[in-house]
Amino acid sequence: MGNRLSKIYTRTGDDGSTGLGDGSRVPKENLRVEAYGTVDEANSAIGVVLSVATLPPAIASCLTEVQHDLFDLGGELCIPGHRMIEAAHVERLETELDGFNEDLPPLKEFILPGGGPAAAACHVARAVCRRAERRCWSLARAEHVSSETLQYLNRLSDLLFVLARVLARHEHGSEVIWRRTKK
């Protein structure tokens, strides 16, 4: 692969448009741009999780693989009609999710985001991932988005929730249970 990013600024977006991967230009607030931009935010939020603490190796490995997937997913969204995320990606997340969830106690109440720096960062990543999923559903109502892409984001937010629970125990020993306000 050649030096693809030799010039970072091009000035082509100064008119409020941006180029998609197929060469077409669309407004920067286009649903497709919103979708892949929010996927990029989710990927960046996962990068924060990976950088805030020394994570258990299984979690670090899982999240690094997810980052690669999200880069592919963003590429898929950036090029209309392109496919990169497949059912095997979703199945891998489900397997990871089941494995990490296995040793956690069942939830009887909601938990508050927190539990230590990595756990809190994982909750932020989960929330950004949910937003990415919503943006992709908005796009799917107007243009084709693969069902696997939508499923992947849904499973990923579930995985990030479970990982936040695991990390809360790893960092702090427990989770903070939401206290119902009595009226």
Architecture blueprint of SSEs:
Blueprint: E1 17-19, E2 25-27, H1 31-52, H2 57-78, H3 87-101, H4 117-142, H5 147-171
Antiparallel strand pairs: 1-2
Helix pairs in contact: 1-2, 1-4, 3-5, 4-5
What's the quick description here?
With 183 residues, this protein is mainly alpha-helical. It has helices spanning 31-52, 57-78, 87-101, 117-142, 147-171; strands spanning 17-19, 25-27.
Structural notes for this entry:
The chain has about 180 residues and is mostly helical. The protein has one domain (about 15-170): Hypothetical Protein Ta1238, Chain: A (Up-down Bundle), CATH 1.20.1200. It contains five helices and two strands. It has a two-stranded antiparallel ribbon. Helix 1 packs antiparallel against helix 4 (about 115-140), helix 3 packs parallel to helix 5 (about 145-170) and helix 4 (about 115-140) packs antiparallel against helix 5 (about 145-170). It is elongated, with a radius of gyration of 18 Å.
Multimer state = single chain
Number of helices: 5
Count of individual beta strands: 2
CATH class equals Mainly Alpha
Spatial strand arrangement across the major sheet:
1-2
Assign a percent range to the helix content. 55-70%
